[in-house]
Every structure is written in structure tokens, then in C-alpha cells.
Amino acid sequence: MLDLRKLRYFLTVAEELHFGRAALRLHLAQPPLTRQISALESELGFRLFDRTSRTVTLTAQGQHFLPYARAVLDQASLTEVIAGKLAAGTAGQLALGYASSIALSDLFSQTIQAFAQRFPDVQLTLVESASSSLYSQVIDGRIDIGMSRLLPESGQTEVQVLSLGGEPLVAALSSDNPLASQDEVTLAELSAHPLIQFPADYGSGLNESIEHLYRRNGLPMRPGPSGRQITSIIALVAAGRGVALVPQCTKTLAKKGVTYRPLADPEACAHLLILTRTQGRSLLVEAFMGVVDELLRDR
User: Fold this and answer.
1) How do residues 110-135 score in pLDDT, each as one tens digit?
2) What's in the keyword line of the UniProt record (predicted)?
3) Using alpha carbons only, what angle is made at residue 271 by residues 268 and 277, rounded to the nearest 5 degrees?
4) pTM of the predicted structure, to 2 decimals
């Protein structure tokens, strides 16, 4: 294996084409530098320099070898930099899982943007999942952070849950629905229509919040069709297949034929939670949570 120190000596002499000046740059005496270059030439099996008492020039082999030696040294320098960033928690990989409706929220996009700007050497992988599966994915390490709408089960201790508050629910209605002409709608009015939700077996935290809301108000839920994406739910609304209760951020999906109206119940909301492992949080996870904390303070 080539000695990086000898490659640096070679590069310096190649730049200076003078052993004396190169020795000064390297803070060496000239004889040791000459011996190191000779040793490198012996290892390579060819001469790097033609030397006379007056001049030093690169041989043809030396000229061809020079860019490769420079690339090795540049890569070694980059490796040292990346190693330092990894040790400091400013480089690496981070997997973020999220429920589909959360991707539309301002906090989601702002957090990703701010984190990417502050930590450009971190490869952030986004994984869309049902809220119910995010807990197990955090526990077994498939993802580092989860953004969920599902409250944890009582007694759960393996995942640390940070609540970012509730996001108001709004009614998504087909534009020809009579309720779309009202300034706001009540849950009782919505209960007369088929309700479009995520599939029952999907494990949606949004479904759980909506079902709790209907139970709290003693109202029946008329089941409608289901969609596995928030965009699919809105498409079904536009097709007149029913109504939907969605987080307020869904209004950014300005789909033709769909009207959003606020609910008369101000307590109707969807949870927004961040999940991390209770034990052994990495420096990158701590950095991400720091960005979230700053954004929340600014809001």
C-alpha cells in the first residue's frame, strides 16, 4: 500500500520542481526528502523525476502518475473531513417515516428544508407509512424518526413521543354538495353522508381521531369508500362518493370539484406527533429534533 506521506512529498516536489523549495514547504531537510522520493520510486518501479545539478523535471511516467496521486490525496482529505463530521453528528444517514397527510403540513416541509440547509452532508430518506406501523419501525431501527397522528398506547415506554399540538380538521366536500355553500358545517350535517377514510386495517391515526370525534358527539358514521393516500381520498370526494374529514393542511390540494369548509366544532383536530427511540438516540436524531424545536419556537 502506498504511503500517503510519500505521495504528499511527491506532489510538493512536482509543484515546485525544486527539492530545496519543496523541503522548505514540507519543513524537512533536503536529504531526507530526497531519500523518501527515491524510496517511492523504488516502490513504484519507475523514476518520477529527471534530476541534474541544475534542474528537476517530471518523467513521462511521473507526469502520468501525478493526477492519480493528487486524486488519492484529495480523497484522503475528504475522508478525514467526512470522518470528523460523522463524529460530530453532522453527516451520515437519517430515515424519516411519516403519515401521508403530514407531508402536506408546513411544519413537515419547513423542517426538512431547514435540516437539509444546516446539514447538507446528511442523506435524508423519507418513508411514507401508516401511523400504526411507525412505532414498530422506530423501535426496530428501520426508521430513526417518525411523524405520526396516532397517540401511543398506555404503558408504551420504548418510543419517546413529542406532541406538536393538534391541527384543525376541515370538511372536504364535493363542490355540488349543498353543504359546500355554507360558511361552516357541523358534524351532525356530515354524518348524513358517507364518510371517506383510510382503510380500516391501515392503522391510520387520522381515522382514530375522526372515530373518536363521532363517538364523543354520539353520531353514527356512514361508511364510504376508502383510499390509502390523502390524495386518493380527495379524488373520491371530487367524484361525489362522499365527504371526508381531513387536516387543515390538506387544503393545499386545491383539486377542482372539491370545497373545504371549517367545522363548527373547534376541538375537532388531528394530532401531530414526533416519535424517536427512548434509548440510544443518535447525534443526527438530536440535531433533527433541535431543528424542530427552533421552528416551534419561531411559530
Assistant:
1) 999 999 999 888 889 999 988 889 99
2) DNA-binding, Transcription, Transcription regulation
3) 165
4) 0.71
